[in-house]
Amino acid sequence: MKIFSCEEHVGHALDMFVALEKDFPIMDRLQENEQNNEKCEYCAEQATYIVANK
User: Fold this and answer.
1) How many CA atoms lie within 13 A of 8 on its CB side?
2) Within 13 Å and on the Cβ side, how many CA atoms surround 45?
3) In a 3-state reduction of DSSP, which class is residue 32?
4) Please, which residues have CB within 8 angstroms of residue 39's CB and are 6 or more apart in sequence?
5) Is 51 in contact with 14 (CB distance < 8 Å)?
6) pLDDT tens by residue, 1-54
7) Which residue from 30, 4, 25 is spatially nearest to 14, judged by alpha carbons?
8) What is the pTM of this model?
9) CA distance linking residue 44 with residue 5, whole number of Å
């Protein structure tokens, strides 16, 4: 599972991941070249974080 998130929604993304996966996620900051390709899953902003499985 991968959730892309902006700065504002990263806390919600972490909560949702734990609720759905029943496991702790890895949270990484996206590189600049990756940010241009991904949008936050909770709004229209550019994603700055990825919350994902190990």
Assistant:
1) 8
2) 12
3) helix
4) 4, 45, 46, 47
5) yes
6) 999 999 999 999 999 999 999 999 999 999 877 667 899 999 989 999 999 997
7) 25
8) 0.86
9) 10
